[in-house]
Amino acid sequence: MTHNTGRVVVIGASMAGLIAARALADAANEVLILDRDELPSSPQWRKGVPQGRHAHALLRAGEQILEDLFPGLIRDLVARGGQRFSWFADALWWQFDGYRTRRADDFEGTFFTRPLLEDTVRKRLAALPNVQIRPGIRVRGLTGRDGRVTGVVTGEGEHEPAIHADLVVDASGRGSRAGAWLEELGATAPPVDHVRIDMGYASRLLRRIPGQLPGRTWIATLGTPPRSKRLAIAIPVEGDRWLVTLAGFFGDHAPADDAGFLAFADTLPAGDIPDLLRQAEPLTPIVRHTLRSEQWRHFEKLRRPPAGFLAIGDAICSFNPIYGQGMSSAALQAAALSRCVAKHDLASPALPRRFYRSAAKIVTRPWAVAVGGDFFYPETTGPRPPLVDVLNPTCAGRSSPLSTTQSSRAPSRTCRTC
Predict the structure, then answer these.
(1) How many CA atoms lie within 13 A of 352 on its CB side?
(2) Which end of the chain is more exposed for a tag (fewer CB within 10 A), N or C?
């Protein structure tokens, strides 16, 4: 066990950044989280998390790690209105031309809005004496010398002072500029894989009243690929509300007007979600988000990753959100980071190599699950996971959005995040 001291700077108060900060708080004298947004004091949507208005859930591994890092977190979420549910027993789940059977070997999860989760975790972190969260600060580069990163440059002016760090953790998400920053220091940017899917999401909140979904808690409706590119989910969240998300591949996106939103839902193979939309009172406008591709930055392939710098979460791998992998993958990476700093000092050149190898192992399985499911569609382009052309035609119902990660009957396609 090493005895780490010094300062960690985390770029981004995303879920990946918050979880990483907690994982490192026991190993550093100071953990400083910088975010360009003015962070809200209550659960509210924010610009820096454009996907935050859409449906979210933690898979089993992610929930377990968050509960380990923040004991009582799930209890706190439920106290603030989060909804406990059973993944299969409570679902009205249509997929591959039929409803899924309720399962005896079920496990529980929690539904909430992304702002509620972030707000609850931020408050826990802010209570730690060696953690500071500084909003409204934009990181615009790294400082470094002799093959290591020594800090970050903030602000807009050329003469803004740098913030020194023994370790910089980039949790700035899919749009991370780490590659360009590393090249500015004379280091090598990681190679990047893109799998093009051109996904679009449209979501809104609606009023939830008892009896609208008798005997069930949530709805998932998935069109059968490749003939259908559409799917939808409706989940109960805090404040007696439904969060309904409609999604589609390759430009087949739901409109943002009321009539178009409902018309899109009416084309789904089961009528449960359009029935709900007709019953429930809308509370918010429809918001949209697009994702052109899944993305994996292969830091593990760098021969000499700079000491003093790590990427984590979506800054490494950005999954198609319909598979629910992102937050749980980030949590697994944070747990791996905690194990790595138990063996290496924050400034050790061995730390990035060891962490990136661990992160790649964590990402490989859910990447294969998500990308493999996306390759049901012939329009999907990019590197294919091994055996995808063999598995996809033969495992209908077991390697598709929302189901693959939960199935215990297909161990070759089951991912570590659940």
Answers:
(1) 26
(2) N
